[in-house]
Amino acid sequence: MEIIAGVDEAGRGPLAGPVTAAAVILPDDHTITGLTDSKKLSASHREKLFDEIYKNAISVGIGIVEVNEIDKINILQATYKAMYKALGNLDSKPDKALVDGSTLPNQIIPNEGIIKGDDKVDCIRAASIIAKVTRDRIMEQFDIIFPEYEFAKHKGYGTKVHLEKLREYKATLIHRKSFRPVKENLPTITWLQNNRKIGQWGEKLAALEYYKNGYKIHALNHHCAPYGEIDIVAEKDNEMVFAEVKTAAGKILGGIEDQVDELKLQRLSDAIDKYIMDYELEKDIRLDVFAIRLGKYGPKLKHFKAIELE
Hints:
Shape: globular
CATH topology of the largest domain: Nucleotidyltransferase, domain 5
Mean pLDDT: 94
Distance between the termini: 64 Å
Helix content: 25-40%
Low-confidence stretches: none
Radius of gyration: 22 Å
Strand order of the largest sheet: 3-2-1-4-5
CATH superfamily of the largest domain: Ribonuclease H-like superfamily/Ribonuclease H
Largest sheet: 5 strands, mixed
Number of helices: 10
CATH architecture of the largest domain: 2-Layer Sandwich
């Protein structure tokens, strides 16, 4: 029997965040009910179907292309690349791919574009749901890093609220700089300095560094009274990581990391102890320090892992 994969994307139109794609191979006798275009489903229904698709599918492949590459190769080519990645990440190589919309160029797997395929073909409908939920979860992580933009609500699309936030706070590190509304609202170091956002920018840079390396971000600027704030709380492989971030623009005397003295480390230790008690954690614990310097040619990050606490 011919093995068919359905392919669809999510996130082609937003001003921020990656474009994602999914490829799904379903058995002919699958028992999933309610498959349709992901845009016609509620978030809770999509989540439910997401789990059912993974349980029932022969194979699921995901492709993600980040904003830097979108800006470099343009959104159409980035969408194609996400679809290529999704097909390449399938456990089973399909004989043919059915793609929502247009046929994929330069693809070694024979494929056919189907207009409104996410309304007609189950495997494309399933791919639509997987791509959408995958991207939504990414944007929900970015919402923790950039709460002022409300990414969890609009997922990076150019809504009225998003455009207002863009004008007020300027573009973030996950905005697509090649898109006109973003290009018109790029921050400068002078703007960051005048608006006292140098420290915040560094914290968000550090949080994105964790995210890129597979960490789940739990919080930024978590207040642990009376000891102060923990800049970043993240988790990976049952290890909780607490990070202190120091950021400077231009040249300063001494090293940025030198600002984390014994008194600061003691306060951090006390704050971490309180966090552990508040959340009743029974996991490995690590303290990191980031020293970030913002400059004309981009940021430079130093990441000091596993700082010892007394």
